[in-house]
Structure formats: structure tokens, C-alpha cells
Design goal:
The complex is a heterodimer of chains A (316) and B (116).
Chain A (H helix, E strand, L loop, with lengths): L10 E7 L3 E7 L3 H13 L3 E12 L5 H9 L30 E9 L6 E4 L4 E2 L22 E5 L4 E11 L10 E14 L1 H5 L3 H10 L5 E3 L6 E3 L10 H8 L6 E16 L5 H18 L4 H17 L3
Antiparallel strand pairs in A: 1-2, 2-12, 3-8, 4-6, 4-8, 5-7, 9-12, 10-11
Helix pairs in contact in A: 1-6, 4-5
Chain B lengths: L18 E5 L6 E7 L3 H12 L4 E7 L7 E8 L5 H33 L1
Antiparallel strand pairs in B: 1-2, 2-4, 3-4
The structure holds zinc ion (ZN).
The site of zinc ion (ZN) has 6 residues of chain A, from loops.
């Protein structure tokens, strides 16, 4: 019954991994998969962000909704998000924020008592769950220089007191839930130099050609004065060298093709999840999405009945 | 005030089928699948996977309108297959590809963290 498989076996090569940054090569698949992964990393991998704020006291210069909005945008560590429930389909609670399956509670209580302006920062947010806390961007900074993300500044006598509920969400709903700072991929370029034609160029012409590229893709080999490709990935598909070759009356001197099955990904996160984890989560989310679009049994059954009719139509 | 809820974009409303299927009345082995609350992410990968299938004569998708949160996927196959069979096959193949991708990524990640 099952037909032949048309499955592909993509390959990965990792170039660089940091906490919130990574670069890797994806090969032996097409741009639809690369783009689906990119889109999902940006808009559909869940994180946790503040979604509901109850303000008790706010005598700061910023109004309640302004502060609520700022709180929402603070990245929270979200390793838990994949296994958490969305509040809207949580049946264990009534959305009061006390539920361990779908929400995390935060408190913030700050009052300025001195003449010195007081910064209220993400560090003043007290979480009910030690795994869900504002992302720490200190990275080697000492405590005095690292204050976290500033929410508002208070002068003497001003006070801010509130309770906030953080929930699981996705970037498609609101960008505050997007774990991605930037996710991009580029097609790997294949650069071919026609050596015979290149030989007919003077050294000055070669230099002109090398300089025509706005990014440093080509260079002249100091040894044998030949034009070489030093960094193919620096090429931005700007066509400048091709135009230059054309203008020199040497079309075909350089040929550049984008390989259609090789991609170089750059992933940067907000710190809510690790960059490597973001890629894995994206694959998982895509798998879940595919599973959701499988045909249901009743759809197939309904068609089987229709199939009798269809057989007549086919003249069977 | 009367703005629709943001989740309208990705939550299938109650009583609505995620995927519905309609045979073409004029063309043999042709059908349209309506997939609710999905966009180019799913539409494009399924279409491209269907193009790899030799029994598929036509596969295309469209997002009819940015405010209608659904895609339409049209498939026509040879008599060796059917739109439903091709659709299922495409999803299975994509699913297996992602399993492979996940293993590859995890393997390479483990290798990278060990070496550096
Ligand atoms: Zn709950």
C-alpha cells in the first residue's frame, strides 16, 4: 500500500556554538525546509513572558500600561516552556496565576527612600520558580556594573508594587514571546573563475576586478599573481564582479551559482533559550505541526464512501 | 474593541476540522485539502515534498488571504496513486526527514561540545 519513500537525509555541520549564538551548515535538503525552520524559530518556538500585571501601587512617572508593556518584553529563562501548557488549554486552573502547569508568578516591590535616583530593574523581579527568572546578561561584569534591564527610575518617595503572571506563548501571538534575536540562512555560493580568460588580464585589470566586489571575496595571490577566491561566503549576491567582468568585455570570466541544497544558518537568541536548544525545539515544533495536519480517520472514511461514486466516474 | 483575539491566528476554533478534503468533480485523481490555521511554513514544505513524488502530476498551495488563517493545497496524481496517498506519503517522509535531522544535529552538537 505504501509507495516508495522520497525521504531525504540532510546533513549538519556545526561551525560555532555559544550560549546565545550559533552557526551551522545544513545540506542535502531544500530551501522549503530551511525556511520552515527559520520561520518556526522566530515565530513558533514557545518561551515564557510576563502576560498579566496587577499593579498595587505605582507612583512612578510611567503609567501602569507602560510599565506592564516593559515587563512583558523582559526575556525570561524558558527551558521549561516546551513542556509547559498554554494557559488557554490548561484545565488544571482558572487562570489565577497560581497554577504550576501554565504560569509563573512574579512580585516586584520597590520604593525609593533616598535622594539618589533609584533604578528599578529586572533584578528586582522576584520569581516563584527558580528556573524561570529574567535572563542574566552580566557575562563577566561585576555586580556594581550589572544592574539588569531597567524598568523605570524612581525619585525620593516614589514606589512601585505589583504582581505579574508569566505565561507560555509564541512569537506569532506577540513578539515578546519570540526567542529569536535574529535567525538567517544564506545559500552557499559556488564561485568559478575561468583561468584561461583570467590569464588574458593585466595585473591592474585583475586588481580592478578584485576591488569591484564590495565585500572581500577575491584576492590576488602574492606568489603567482593569480586571482583567487579567499572567502566565498563574503559574497552578498550583489553581482558587482559579474558586471565588472561584463564591462571589461569578458563575460563568463567569473561565474557564481547559489547551491540550492546547502545553507549556512546564523542563529542568535534573546537568551531565553540556548541557541542550540532553539534549533532542536524548532525541529520538534515542526514535527508536532506535521502531526497535526495528518488526515483524520473520519475524513478518510468519508472519502471511502465517496470512492464508490468515484469509481463510476472513473468508469470502473 | 471588536478586534479578534490574537490566538485566532493559530488556534483551530471548536467544531472546525484541521484538515478537510474535497475531491475534484471534473479532474481524475485531483483534490483540494484545506488546512486550517496553517501558513507558508507547512504549505511550502508539503508542496515541495509532493514535487519529489513521481506519481504527483500537480501540487500547489495558496494562502488565500492574510486574514483568512488557512491554506489550500491542491494535488493531482497519476492513477498509480491518489491525492490522499500522496499527501500522507509526503507528511511521513517529512516527518522521517526531521527525525534524521534531529539525530544529525544532536550528534554534531555532542561532537562539537566534546572537541571544543
Ligand atoms: Zn494552569
Amino acid at each position: 500500500m505504501d509507495g516508495v519513500s522520497y525521504q531525504r537525509f540532510p546533513r549538519i555541520k556545526i561551525r560555532e556554538v555559544k550560549h546565545d549564538y550559533m552557526k551551522f551548515e545544513l545540506r542535502d535538503t531544500d530551501s522549503s525546509i530551511a525556511n520552515a525552520l527559520r520561520r518556526i524559530m522566530i515565530a513558533e518556538v514557545p518561551t515564557i513572558a510576563i502576560d498579566l500585571v496587577e499593579i498595587e501601587v505605582n507612583s512612578s512617572v510611567l503609567n501602569d500600561e507602560f510599565i506592564s508593556h516593559r515587563l512583558g518584553l523582559i526575556p525570561l529563562t524558558s527551558e521549561r516552556a516546551m513542556s509547559m501548557r498554554f494557559s488557554r488549554d490548561c484545565d488544571a486552573c482558572d487562570g489565577d496565576g497560581q497554577c504550576e502547569y501554565c504560569s509563573v508568578e512574579f512580585y516586584l516591590r520597590v520604593k525609593c527612600l533616598s535622594d539618589q535616583t533609584l533604578d528599578v530593574t529586572s533584578k528586582d523581579l522576584l520569581s516563584s520558580d527558580h528556573t524561570v527568572v529574567p535572563v542574566d546578561y552580566s557575562d563577566g561584569l561585576d555586580n556594581a556594573t550589572n544592574k539588569g534591564i531597567i524598568i523605570v527610575k524612581l525619585r525620593r518617595g516614589q514606589e512601585l508594587r505589583l504582581r505579574a503572571i508569566a505565561r507560555k506563548g509564541i512569537g506569532k501571538d506577540h513578539a515578546k514571546w519570540s526567542p529569536a534575536a535574529t535567525v538567517t540562512f544564506m545559500y552557499e555560493p559556488e564561485i568559478y573563475i575561468n583561468e584561461d580568460m583570467m590569464e588574458s588580464l593585466t595585473l591592474e585589470e585583475k586588481q580592478e576586478l578584485v576591488d569591484s566586489s564590495p565585500t572581500k571575496v577575491f584576492a590576488i595571490d602574492p606568489e603567482n599573481k593569480q586571482v583567487i577566491v579567499v572567502d566565498p561566503e563574503a559574497y552578498t549576491y550583489d553581482d558587482e564582479v559579474l558586471k565588472k567582468a561584463e564591462a571589461m568585455g569578458k563575460p563568463g570570466l567569473v561565474e557564481i551559482h547559489a547551491k540550492e541544497d546547502s545553507f549556512i544558518f546564523t542563529v542568535e537568541t534573546t537568551g531565553a533559550v540556548k541557541a542550540s536548544q532553539l534549533v532542536l525545539n524548532a525541529i520538534e515544533v515542526l514535527k508536532q505541526k506535521l502531526d497535526a495536519v495528518r488526515l483524520s480517520d473520519d475524513t478518510v472514511e468519508a472519502d471511502d464512501q465517496f470512492g464508490e461514486l468515484g469509481a463510476h466516474m472513473r468508469g470502473g | 474593541m471588536n478586534a479578534p483575539d490574537r490566538y485566532e491566528r493559530f488556534v483551530v476554533p471548536e467544531g472546525v476540522k484541521k484538515v478537510s478534503y474535497e475531491r475534484d468533480t471534473k479532474i481524475m485523481n485531483a483534490a483540494t485539502f484545506t488546512v486550517e490555521r496553517e501558513d507558508h511554513t507547512i504549505g511550502n514544505i508539503v508542496r515541495m515534498q509532493l514535487h519529489r513524488d513521481d506519481t504527483v502530476l500537480f501540487a500547489g498551495y495558496k494562502l488565500p488571504h492574510p486574514l483568512q488563517y488557512k491554506i489550500l493545497l491542491r494535488i493531482q496524481t497519476t492513477s498509480q496513486s491518489s491525492p490522499m496517498q500522496a499527501y500522507n506519503q509526503a507528511i511521513n517522509d517529512l516527518d522521517k526527514e526531521l527525525d534524521h535531522l534531529k539525530n544529525q544535529f544532536e550528534g554534531e552538537l555532542a561532537k562539537y561540545t566534546r572537541d571544543y
